[in-house]
Amino acid sequence: LFSGLGGFLSDRISKTTVIISCKAAEIGIVGIGLAVLLVPSLSTTTTLAALIFVLALMGTHSAVFSPSKYGVLPELFRADCLLPVNGAVQMTTFLAIIFGTVCAGIALDLIRNQLWISSVIAIIIAALGTASSLLMPHVPAAEPTLQLRPENLVMPRLVLQILLRNRPLLMAVLVYSLFWFLGGVVQMGINTLGEAALHLSRTRTSVLVAGIGLGIALGCLLAGFAGRGSRRWTVVGAWLLVTTLAAAALLGSGLCGTPASAGRDLRTETIVSSLFVCDLVEWLLRVDMTILGIAAGLFVVPVQVYLQAAPPAELKGRVLGVQNLMTWIGILLSAAFSLVVGLTLKAIAGPAADKQHQWVLFALLAAMMLPVAVFYRLPALADVSEPTTEVPH
């Protein structure tokens, strides 16, 4: 809902100012979450509602923050540096997302009812992020006289015109949104696949998620620092995504056997054994998740660079705001898609089928990614570089 506003602010005022303000607000938002967890008199329902409100605030924060975060890069770095810079930025972004999920799984096994400890850690991280943002160089506003209009909150008219005129740019926005749709489904699906379908502990399931994070880091670095031929990485990444998603479906189906560690948790084994002691099926799944992450990094970094560099400078923030809006639509649809698939499996094969047959979800994702691997080719920047009409104020 607030991605359009984030895009408007990214063009209207300095992106540096937006970034610092968002990072400072993050401390306060996480602090509210800590306060909620520390109030013993709150009922479970009230606590849950308050934490959902905190999550909504964090979502708003991300929507406003994202266009400036990515839009400032072309203003700070030369065009020939965008690929390695984005590789590093995407790597750290995905590592934060993935390993945040990993830490949550381990925390549930270790600290159980003392979740306030995780909020304290989150506040420390937010404070460090705010301090680091203060070191950023100041960049001038792209359109300091731009006036806020209702269309800026959703889809600015000029952005819509550019997307309709430039099919390559529109396709890049849609493909990027599809990528995050797949990511949302995989992040939810791998937890269910590990815990409910394969009966792995939360810690062992978190190792699978960590494999994705490690792979993404490697993929982003490879795509970012490989230099020339970056457009080729989208094709390689797309085919690897198809292959690894299909392999996850096969391994999760039980046709290759069930992991020997099924049913164990930290009450019956140590963290060290959870991390390093497993059979062939579980190792194959860990390797597959790592390659899946590499594929994601190879695929997404060149697309992100293209989306940063292609729009006109005076509209860059609003285009990235629309891209962010489409990204969140993809993420929301991923939850709806998982729900629909789960309900369908229950209707066909029984009440527990959505967990027992979680592999079906990965098979569907592989089929969904196949047309992208076959037909989509990232265009050159020259395909969309054209003068824009004068921006009305």
Which terms would index this structure?
393 residues, mainly alpha, Growth Hormone, Chain: A, globular
Can you describe this structure in just a few lines?
This protein is an all-alpha fold. It has helices spanning 3-12, 15-38, 44-71, 73-76, 82-110, 116-133, 157-165, 167-197, 202-225, 230-252, 271-276, 280-309, 316-349, 353-356, 359-375. It has a domain at 79-111 and 163-383: Up-down Bundle (Growth Hormone, Chain: A), CATH 1.20.1250.20.
Structure in words:
By secondary structure, the protein is an all-alpha fold. It has a domain at 79-111 and 163-383: Growth Hormone, Chain: A (Up-down Bundle). The chain has 15 helices and no strands. Helix 1 runs antiparallel to helix 13 (316-349).
Write the layout of secondary structure elements.
Elements: H1 3-12, H2 15-38, H3 44-71, H4 73-76, H5 82-110, H6 116-133, H7 157-165, H8 167-197, H9 202-225, H10 230-252, H11 271-276, H12 280-309, H13 316-349, H14 353-356, H15 359-375
Helix pairs in contact: 1-3, 1-13, 2-3, 2-6, 3-13, 5-9, 5-12, 7-8, 8-9, 8-12, 8-13, 8-15, 9-12, 10-12, 10-15
